[in-house]
Amino acid sequence: MVKKVPDRLIIYTQDIENILGKSARSARKYMSRLRKIFEKERGQFISVEEFCAASGLTEEQVRIFIRRD
User: Fold this and answer.
1) What are the helix (H) ranges across 1-69?
2) What pLDDT is attached to residue 2?
3) What's the whole-model pTM score?
4) DSSP string, 30-43
5) Dihedral sign from CA coordinates of 41, 13, 19, 32
6) pLDDT reported for residue 69
7) Helices 48-55 and 13-20, packing angle to 10 deg
8) Are 59 and 49 in contact (CB under 8 A)?
C-alpha cells in the first residue's frame, strides 16, 4: 500500500528565500512582518494561504516551490 504524503500547510523562511529570491536575513524579516500582519506570536506558523494573501501570489505558484517529491 502506497501512502501519499499530504502537501505542507506552512511556509518556512527557506521557502521565502526560494520563492521571493531573498537572502536568509530578509526572509526572516519578511516572516516577522507576516506574523505582525496576522497577529501571531513569535514561533507560530504562517500558512500557505496567509503567505499567498500577503504576497499576492497564487497557491499554485507557491506550491511549485514547496512540493515534496
Assistant:
1) 13-20, 24-37, 48-55, 59-66
2) 73
3) 0.83
4) HHHHHHHHTT--TT
5) positive
6) 44
7) 40
8) yes
